[in-house]
What we know:
Blueprint (H helix, E strand, L loop, with lengths): L1 E12 L3 H9 L5 H8 L2 E12 L3 E6 L5 H8 L7 E6 L2 E2 L5 H10 L1 E4 L11 H11 L4 H14 L15 H13 L5 E5 L7 H17 L5 E6 L2 H7 L2 E6 L2 E6 L1 H6 L4 H7 L4 H4 L23 E2 L9 H5 L5 E4 L5 E5 L1 H11 L20
Parallel strand pairs: 3-8, 3-9, 6-7, 7-8, 11-12
Antiparallel strand pairs: 1-2, 1-4, 4-5, 9-10, 12-13
Helix pairs in contact: 1-2, 5-6, 5-7, 6-7
The structure holds adenosine-5'-diphosphate and magnesium ion.
Magnesium ion binds next to helix 3.
Amino acid sequence: MAVIEVEGLWKIYGDDPKAARRLAKEDGLSKAEVKEETGSVIAVNDASFEVGEQEIFVVMGLSGSGKSTLLRCVNRLIEPTFGEVYVGGEEVTAFDEEQLRNIRRSKMSMVFQNFGLFPHRTVLGNVEYGLEVAGRERDERREKARRSLVTVGLEGYEDSMPNELSGGMQQRVGLARALVNDPEILLMDEAFSALDPLIREEMQNELLDLQEQWDPACTILFITHDLDEALKMGDRIAIMKDGRLAQVGTPTEILTDPADDYVRSFVQNVDRTKIIPARSVMRDLQDDESNESTDEWPTVSPHTPIAELLPILLDTDGPIAVRDESDQLRGVISRKAVMKEVMRNAGVNGEREESAEPVQVEAAK
Ligand SMILES: Nc1ncnc2c1ncn2[C@@H]1O[C@H](COP(=O)(O)OP(=O)(O)O)[C@@H](O)[C@H]1O
Ligand SMILES: [Mg+2]
């Protein structure tokens, strides 16, 4: 079942949203044309999508395309103009204030780009804040906040002030704060965009690992303007342009079958083998393969990019095992699956004609 369902969602800034919607929807005017004609800004244009349980769903688009607005319509930090949002089957767009407060406290947490920490509270004070406003006992708050800090690797920093920490560490605090009440849904708005590239990559990997380990895993709605990040993090990606979802699909679908010229121009220079993760080409262990035999196989993590499997294949004839952080077998990758991806990336057609003459190779003298 879908954890988040968004149906026909619009956010229009302006005096006459119905007129603006009609111009966009029925007369096919662009965002810029509607703005020029009516003065209204269509921030989100008829967005519909579902996010499955434990999925990482990424919304990717250029600045101003409507990503933050869309995300904030989900927890109603921004009020949608038209359309419905359901979370866990409940219509959030029909909630009153009290219900909204409850769902934000118990089910959905948000991580912001600029960390959004209270500067005068300690790290621990920041993390326990949500539990405090929810009226939890001090001991319980502290205990949960401490545990959450351990999860994000900040044990020992409880009494530090935010400005004593690096950007990466501050965002770890932001993440710990979001995780403190065991949310079912994490809303992350460009959460890693302000970080230096290396720290950013580290955080991406940790989030992926964490999400695999959480039990039950969180569902994540993840916003980014960075295509590489989208392709790396997303189980599925929505590409957003001028408030519209131009395409929703898996990273592999987006890369191999772009829905229109806009998406095509976006992805044309991507080296897929550096992006497409091991998990997207793995298969289940087959009946004739015993679980023990996989112990002998080389092992990679689910998010190792295909390109990094190539040197491993130099040293093995057999398949590669895919294991998560807790050493659980997640799947198996055959040589052939890797080669297919590499060929596809190089634009080599894998179909060989039946009638083709055998290729004669002259022996070099
Ligand atoms: N309060 C507002 N009034 C008018 N237009 C707005 C307002 N907030 C956002 N917008 C417009 O909505 C569009 C989407 O903005 P936003 O969701 O912030 O984009 P993104 O997060 O993708 O950068 C932009 O064109 C922006 O200018
Ligand atoms: Mg934004």
